[in-house]
Specification:
The chain contains nine helices and seven strands. The chain is an alpha/beta fold and 256 residues long. The two termini are 34 Å apart. Helices cover 46% and strands 21% of the residues. It has one domain: Vaccinia Virus protein VP39 (Rossmann fold, 3-Layer(aba) Sandwich).
């Protein structure tokens, strides 16, 4: 990845994470989880994954590429699981600790600081398209899952070739066939998949996330880093609106 690509990814996932924490604190209760789930699926998508991961109270859930921890916080509240958030961006790790009090660590997806076979459930949401080493990330998730453990993914899959508009900087989207090949090679068998409805949220959820976005813009709208992050989001939105990229939910089982 070039220095320019790295800077764009840092703006989108690190600097913006700190600003999200700041804005959510100002706006108060009810804003942090919706804002923290932006880009990582809707509540309906999270429920779909949680059901198929067979999450039960007290289960350890590894969240690889957790961002600011919104989905993990949702799972802790809705399913009473014990999430561990692993994320390469330090600003996002700081935000997840301070917004939600979640166990969090800075870690690359290809090198998770966890023992072999430590958990029966892991998820990685909207992350696979942001790394060139997709095989390495999936192999590492296979390592930390015990045999028969389940992996949940939200993957933005490329549906047309070529893409009609530029991809967000630092993103590369697998096709459905690419994803199946990657999972099979990493030692997973797919047991369920669905197209995600990214608007499947309860009343007030999107309003809370929008309020955080508006507060960030009020505070940082003149900052070039905010504009670059907004451009990244706009590029993804354009591809989704055109149907060129399809949000796909996958649950796979780790083979022995």
């Amino acid at each position: 990845m070039s220095e320019l690509d790295s800077a764009a990814m840092e703006d989108e996932f690190d600097v913006t994470a700190a600003w999200t924490e700041e804005a959510a604190r100002v706006l108060g209760p009810g804003h942090a989880v919706p804002a923290g789930c932006r880009g990582s699926g809707s509540v309906g998508s999270l429920r779909w994954l949680a059901d198929r991961l067979a999450l039960h109270p007290g289960d350890l859930l590894v969240d690889a590429g957790a961002g600011v921890g919104g989905p993990a916080a949702w799972a802790a509240g809705d399913r009473q699981v014990r999430p561990v958030c692993l994320e390469p961006m330090a600003g996002a790790v700081h935000a997840s600790r301070h917004l939600f009090g979640l166990p969090s660590a800075v870690a690359m997806g290809q090198s998770l600081p966890l023992l072999d076979g430590i958990t029966a459930a892991a998820w990685s949401l909207g992350v696979l398209c942001t790394t060139d080493d997709k095989a390495g990330a999936l192999t590492e998730l296979h390592r930390v899952l015990r045999p028969g453990g389940r992996l949940g993914l939200l993957v933005f899959v490329q549906a047309v070739d070529p893409l009609p508009t530029p991809a967000p900087v630092g993103n590369s989207f697998p096709t459905d066939d690419d994803l199946d090949d990657l999972l099979g090679a990493a030692g997973f068998d797919v047991i369920d998949r669905a197209v995600a409805d990214l608007d499947d949220n309860p009343p007030g959820w999107d309003d809370a996330a929008d309020a955080v976005d508006a507060e960030m813009e009020r505070r940082h709208g003149a900052d070039p880093r905010f504009r670059r992050s907004t451009q990244q989001s706009g590029r993804m939105g354009a591809l989704l609106s055109a149907g060129a990229v399809r949000p796909t939910l996958v649950v796979a089982v780790r083979r022995a």
